[in-house]
Amino acid sequence: MSKAQYIIALDQGTTSTRCIIFNQKGEAVATSRREFAQHYPELGWVEHNPEDIWNDTVFTIRTAMSEAKLDSDPSSIAAIGITNQRETVVLWDKATGKPLYNAIVWQDRRTSAVCHKLKADGLEKTVHEKTGLLLDPYFSATKLAWLLDNVADARIAAQRGELAFGTIDSFLLWRLTGGKVHATDATNASRTLLFNIKTQSWDPELLKLFNIPEELLPEVKDNSTLFGTTDPNLFGTSIPIMGMAGDQQAALIGQACFTPGMTKATYGTGCFMLLNTGDQMVISKNRMLTTTAYRLNGKPTYALEGSIFVAGAAIKWLRDGLGIITHASQTHDMATQVSDNHQVYMVPAFVGLGAPHWAPDARAIISGLTLNATAAHLARAALESIAYQTNDLAEAMKKDSGNDILTTRVDGGMSANDWFCQFLASIMNITVERPSYIETTAMGAAYLAGMGSGIWNNLSDVAHHWRQGASFISHMKEPERNKKLKGWQFALKQALLQEE
Ligand SMILES: Nc1ncnc2c1ncn2[C@@H]1O[C@H](COP(=O)(O)OP(=O)(O)O)[C@@H](O)[C@H]1O
Ligand SMILES: O=P(O)(O)OC[C@H](O)CO
C-alpha cells in the first residue's frame, strides 16, 4: 500500500463541476470536468438541479481517480478539498437526502422586491455591520426564506427539524458522508446574510429578521479541518474531507494572497476581486463587501470583496445567445482584429449589477452602435466591459483601504485570454500577474485539505508553490484611458436608468 500523497480537489462552479487531483508538489495529475444545465424558469430566475451537481461530483471524482490510476489504490489519497459556487441555496429532507426544490442560484433575482422592502425599512445598516454584506437577492437568506414560503409544508417541516439548509458545499458534504454530517465552513457561512462575521457565529437577530428557523442551519467549521469522511461505497475507501471554502476565497488561497494588501480577481462566470485585509474587518463606505477570507485554527482573516455578476457569462452569451462565436477563446482574435472599440460599449447587466451599484433590476445594454459595428466589436466590447467593471471595483477598494492597488493576480477561465489581460492592465494602469496554473480555485481547496492532512504545514509553505506564468503592464496613454473610461461611465448610466 502506498503512502497517502494525493489530494482530490472538487470545484463545483456555476457552469461546471471539476475534479482535479494534485500531488505533494502541488502539480495537477488528473482532471475531469462536466458542464451542467442552467434552468431559467422565469425572467430573472436561475436554478440548478442538485441531483445533476451530485451526479457530476461523483462522476468527475471517479473519472479523475481512474485517470490518475488511483481507483486501484484509493488509500494513496490523503484527503478531499471542496470548493463551490457560493450563496446558492439547497433545502433538503434529512431522512431521504432529497432536495425539496431546485437549487436557487446566486444569480437569481426573484427576491429583489423583498430586498427593496427591507432596505426601505432601513435595515441595511444593521445587516451590513453584522455580515459585511448588503441587502441584495445575490445572498442566500432571502432565497432560503422564499423556499420556506413557497414549497408546500416546508416551513412546518423545517420547524420540526426535518430539513437541512446548505450552500452547495454543505449539500455535497451531506451526500459524500452518506448523510452523516451537516456542516459548512466560515467562508460559505459568511455569504448567507445570517452569519455574524465579527463573532463568527449564526446571528439570532438576523435569523429573526429573515424568518429562518435555527434548526435548519449547518455547523460552521474552520476551512482546514476534518469535515467528515466519505461513504466507503462511493470511491472504494473512506476518504477524509479536510478542506472546504467558497470558490472565491479558495482562489485567494490558491493565488497565495496571504499578505494584507494583496489582491486577486477571478474571471469565471462572474468576476470577484478580493483584497486581503488581514485581521482587520474593514467595513466599506463604497458598497464593497466585507467577508471572511479564511479561518484557520479559529482565527479569521478578512477581505474586502467586489462582486461582478457577469464576466465569462457575457462571453458565453456571445456563444449561446448571439451565436457569433463557437468557442470563448475566439474573442481574443476578434478583439485584436479591430483597431479600437469604435465607441461600442456593452454593460453586461444580464442579472442586474453587483458592486458597487447593487442594482438588481438593471439590465444589459449595448450602446454606440453604428453600421460599421461588427461581431468583432461586440466581442471586444464584452471583454472590455469586464475590465471597466474591475477598474470600478479597484477604485472603490482603494478608497476603503487607503492603499493603492498596483498589482493584481488573475485566474479563472477568462484569464486565459491574453488580449483581455493586456487590456485590463492598460485600463487599470497596474501590473496583472497570471500564474502558470490558472485553476487556482481548485488549487486553494487542495491546499486547505493538504494543510489539514499534514502534506503542507501552513500558508507560507503553500505560498512557495505559486509560480508566475505571465505578467502584463499598461501600454495605454492617459488621454486614451480617460476617454475610454468616460465612454464606459456614460454607457453605465444608461443601464442604471432601468433600475429606477
Ligand atoms: N479564452 C477565453 N476568453 C474569454 N472568455 C473565456 C475564455 N475561456 C473561457 N472563458 C469564459 O470563462 C468562463 C469559464 O470559466 P470557469 O473558471 O470555468 O467558470 P466557472 O467556474 O464559473 O464555471 C466561461 O463563462 C467562458 O465563457
Ligand atoms: O462560478 P464562479 O466561479 O463564477 O463563482 C461564483 C461565485 O462564487 C458567486 O459568489
UniProtKB/TrEMBL annotation:
Pathway: Polyol metabolism; glycerol degradation via glycerol kinase pathway; sn-glycerol 3-phosphate from glycerol: step 1/1. Belongs to the FGGY kinase family. PANTHER family: GLYCEROL KINASE (PTHR10196:SF78), SUGAR KINASE (PTHR10196). Key enzyme in the regulation of glycerol uptake and metabolism. Catalyzes the phosphorylation of glycerol to yield sn-glycerol 3-phosphate. One of its GO terms (cellular component) is cytosol. The gene is glpK. One of its GO terms (biological process) is glycerol catabolic process. This is Glycerol kinase. One of its GO terms (molecular function) is glycerol kinase activity. Inhibited by fructose 1,6-bisphosphate (FBP). SUPFAM superfamilies: Actin-like ATPase domain. Sn-glycerol 3-phosphate binds at residues 14, 86-87, 138, 247. PROSITE patterns: FGGY_KINASES_1, FGGY_KINASES_2. It is an enzyme of class 2 (transferase). ADP binds at residues 14, 18, 269, 312, 413, 417. Residues 265-451 form the Carbohydrate kinase FGGY C-terminal domain. The keyword tRNA processing does not apply. Residues 6-254 form the Carbohydrate kinase FGGY N-terminal domain. Keywords: ATP-binding, Glycerol metabolism, Kinase, Nucleotide-binding, Transferase. Its EC number is 2.7.1.30. Glycerol binds at residues 86-87, 138, 247-248. InterPro entries: ATPase_NBD, Carb_kinase_FGGY, Carb_kinase_FGGY_CS, FGGY_C, FGGY_N, Glycerol_kin. It catalyses: glycerol + ATP = sn-glycerol 3-phosphate + ADP + H(+).
